[in-house]
Amino acid sequence: QVQLAESGGGLVQAGGSLRLSCAASGSIFDINAMGWYRQAAGNQRELVARITGGGSTNYADSVKGRFTISRGNAKNTVYLQMNSLKPEDTAAYYCYVLILGRQYWGQGTQVTVSS
Predict the structure, then answer these.
(1) 53: which DSSP letter?
(2) Which DSSP symbol is given to 84?
(3) Facing residues of 22 across strands?
(4) Which residues face 82 on adjacent strands?
(5) How many Å apart are CA 4 and CA 62, to the nearest integer?
């Protein structure tokens, strides 16, 4: 079993910043990747950013230059630093971890950006 604990969501004004954290625990051998998806009301879930076991990163075009994904020293924790937030960033953000081809999800944390 794999558990993911997320934190850091909240309400922020446009232009502000938030930092999301996600810690994986349980059977977390050989993590292939960790990252964040988001889902706004009425929309499909979309990839925001991911970081592979080797440290390579990918970002959605809409967040490039504003969001930064990073890992903790223990490699079982991932962070998403979100700067210059926009109202369109409002969504539930879900952490995920990919282990041996299987994806595990966190419960989600709400980010709301007011204009």
Answers:
(1) T
(2) S
(3) 6, 78
(4) 18, 67
(5) 25
Average pLDDT, the chain: 95
Task: Name the nearest CA neighbour of 75 among 36, 24, 37.
Answer: 24
Neighbouring residues of 93: CB distance < 8 A, sequence distance ≥ 6: 6, 9, 20, 36, 37, 38, 48, 80, 108, 109, 110, 111
Which candidate, 102, 72, 68, places its Cα nearest to that of 83?
A: 68
Residue 111 phi/psi, 5° resolution? -120, 125
Confidence of residue 42 (pLDDT cuts 50, 70, 90): very high
Q: Which residues of 27-65 are buried (b: 16+ CB within 10 A; e: fewer)?
A: ebeebebbbbbbeeeeeeeeebbbbeeeeeeebeeebee
Residue 75 has pLDDT above 90, yes or no: no
Average pLDDT on 51-65 reads 96
Q: Tens digits of per-residue pLDDT, 89-100?
A: 999 999 999 999
Pairing outcome for strands 109-114 and 10-13: parallel
